């Protein structure tokens, strides 16, 4: 059976007190459960500072 790697970029808006890593982990868990994928991983988390 073939395997395919799919790379996604997800942009999250979150409160200052929320950890983006924790949100990313939850997204991975839900993708695994919803789609029955074999594995997910977080390769990086980059926080953009917004200047208003």
The number of E-state strands comes to 0
Element string (H = helix, E = strand):
H
Name the average pLDDT. Answer: 91
Strand content: under 5%
Give the overall form.
elongated
Largest sheet: none
Q: Roughly how many Å is the radius of gyration?
A: 14 Å
Structural class: mainly alpha
Helix-residue proportion: 25-40%
Q: State the separation between the terminal residues, measured CA to CA.
A: 50 Å
Q: Could you name the ranges where pLDDT drops below 50 across 5 or more consecutive residues?
A: none
Number of helices: 1
Can you walk through the features of this model?
- This protein has 52 residues and is mainly α.
- It contains one helix and no strands.
- It has one helix at 20-35.
- The protein is elongated and about 50 Å long.
- The model has no long low-confidence stretch (mean pLDDT 91).
Topology of this structure?
Blueprint: H1 20-35
What is the compact description of this entry?
With 52 residues, this protein is mainly α. The chain contains one helix and no strands.
Keywords:
single chain, about 30% helix, elongated
